[in-house]
Amino acid sequence: MSVLPKEMKALRYSKPEEYSVVSTNLPTMRPNDVMVKVKACGVCGTDLHIHEGEFIAKFPLIPGHETVGVVAAVGPEVKGFKVGERVVADNSELCNECFYCRRGEPLLCEHFEAHGVTINQVNGGFAEYVAYPAGKVFKINNLSDVDATLLEPASCAAHGLEKIAPKLGSSVLMFGAGPTGLVLSQLLRQNGGCHVVVAAPGGLKMELAKKLGAGDEYVELSRTNPELQFQKLKEENPYGFDIVVEATGSPKILEDAINYVRRGGKLVVYGVYSSSAKVSWPPSKIFGDELTILGSFSEFARFPAAISYLDCGKVKVDGIVNKTYRLEQWGECLEALRNKSAIKAAIVFD
Fold first, then answer.
1. What is the pTM (predicted TM-score) of this model?
2. Are 322 and 204 in contact (CB under 8 A)?
3. What is the CA angle 30-33-36, rounded to 5?
4. Exposed site from 39, 290, 301, 323, fewest CB < 10 Å?
């Protein structure tokens, strides 16, 4: 057992949009906890929603839900982990007792909690140390610390893939080329998606999508007037697509996405949207075309699958994290998310 410091540095929100770097006590370890010394923690669009008080965030809060590090200590009931081992953590904690948990639907847990999002009694990964239940900690081998921050979004993509359950030979349209969309596109290509079209504005993300081989075809959308590209997409695919994934978080694109779904096809609501966002769809179209509309939120028990795909290189993530910051640079990090100069960012520690 290594000797741990009494205090650590962390980024703390007192309420939405008000944060500071503070010195605070290390988290208290439960008997089955693994204490992780954080090496890197991913930053995504969800963190921007949390900053603004959106999503399901609870304050005060130490955010960070994509934690990578090394084992610093283990509780007395923990087996199978040694100090110094490289690990990644699943941020969710579920009650296992509510109506949905008892039905075998733990992701719908009525008491769903997530480190760095909803739990203000324990901290998230924007801190030097975090304690997680041993069952939520997984060993990693080949990925760098920064690239391993993609494992949490990749596990969400793996959950999305299982929800979609694509048939062999499916045609797929992916709106958006953000980090989790790039991972889901690759998973769909390898698991039933015969022809995957990635539609997104030209720029850093689209160039990376091509580099990673996220699709079979790429449609670069104008940022100011994409209507011509949308029309051409419909003309070239008159029957639409078996699967349409909206991964941008734009209600406008989501509302129009239904018009690209083939009869009998699936529309996947995959982006993170403002809680006030609304869309309007004609029920007669959903009824007459026998469309399936799916939501895919977070993940459950998909970290092992995500690790297998990323650690062996079948799903490529090189270059997705293109900016790294220290805790003290959190304001710069937020601005990079807003102005989209960051495809994905990470907070890094010594």
1. 0.92
2. yes
3. 125
4. 290
